[in-house]
Amino acid sequence: MSSPYFTPAAPARGVLALTGGDSVSFLQGLVSNDIHKLAPDRALWAALLTAQGKFLHDFFVLRQGPSILLEGDGARIADLKKRLGLYKLRAKIAIEDVSAHHEVWLGWGDGAAAAFGLAEPGQAAETGNAVAYVDPRRAALGIRLVAPAGTGSALLSARGFQPGDWSVWERLRLAEGVPDGSRDLVLEKSILLENGFDELNGIAWDKGCYIGQELTARTKYRGLIKKRLMPVAIDGALPEPGTLVTRADGSEAGEIRSGLDGQALALIRLEALDAGGPLTAGATRVEPLPPDWLRRPQPAA
Questions:
Q1: Cis peptide upstream of residue 11 (ω within 30 degrees of 0)
Q2: Distance between CA atoms of residues 135 and 104, nearest Å
């Protein structure tokens, strides 16, 4: 059995620390997942939406001592802090950008989760001043480690991990059909159910109200989803994100998102998927590969 591998998370990640007695109730009324399920041994994946249910941010939520940490897109962590601050009002909570003091690592391969005594998606464990957790979206993506700056590499090496190539993990993410924030979701336009947040454990349907909850619930129970993000095989040059995917008759079938070499994610119209036939993005052939976890929309009785 080969050793697991590790690499710094890319693109760069940022970390916010929330402290104060109202931290749980504050987040509970804002984000898509159930913060009451957060615990030292349980991490979550969640999203912050507009009032109309459109995507703004996604992030991982984890406990470390008295703090709740949000691990999100490093280039947009200041925007996340600003947006959360708009809702603070009189809540007993402090929101601090602690990105400079933390680093985020990815670990994958045989034994990656077991090296920290973990197994299931979202399982977490504190180790010294770091927190390791199985990716809450898909266990196949391995573990994520939020550690004090300058310590993660040694910690992972001590657990038997070997340095790896981020592109290997990225290909794994693309094959699993897992979105990566604003690389795959369009700000203030994308909706969660088109992008796998239901099947990938990013939504709690029984938690009550949060920002954008009404539209998200209506979309689910009326079976209104017409497009889904999914892996695609690329035969030719990798199209730029945003390139339209078209059918043989020139009609629109979807749009390319992030990709690497011969793999990408694309938002594909379900009617085009059902119709079959060749799809292209510019001069490049595109073959949809729906993951086994993807569920088709079913309107409620």
A1: yes
A2: 12
Beta-bridge partner residues of 73 = 13
Please tell me the distance from the alpha carbon of residue 257 to that of residue 267, in angstroms, as a whole number: 7
Tokens standing for 86?
Answer: 């708009």
The confidence band for 10, taking pLDDT boundaries of 50, 70 and 90, is: very high
Contact, 103 vs 154, CB < 8 A? no
Please tell me the distance from the alpha carbon of residue 151 to that of residue 97, in angstroms, as a whole number: 19
Dihedral class, residue 281 (left if φ above 0, else alpha if ψ from -120 to 50, else beta): beta
Query: Which amino acid does the sequence have at 208?
Result: G
CB within 8 Å of 10: residues ≥ 6 apart = 166, 170
pLDDT by residue (tens digit) across 130-173?
A: 999 999 999 999 999 999 999 999 999 999 999 999 999 999 99
Beta bridge partners of 48: 31, 57
Are 57 and 27 in contact by the 8 Å Cβ rule? The answer is no
Q: How confident is the model at residue 2 (pLDDT cuts 50, 70, 90)?
A: confident
Task: Report all structural domains of the chain as residue ranges with CATH numbers, in order of start.
Answer: 5-176 (3.30.1360.120), 195-288 (2.40.30.160)
Q: DSSP per residue over 256-280, as a string? A: EEEEETTEEEEEEEHHHHHH-S-EE
Is 81's pLDDT higher than 60? yes
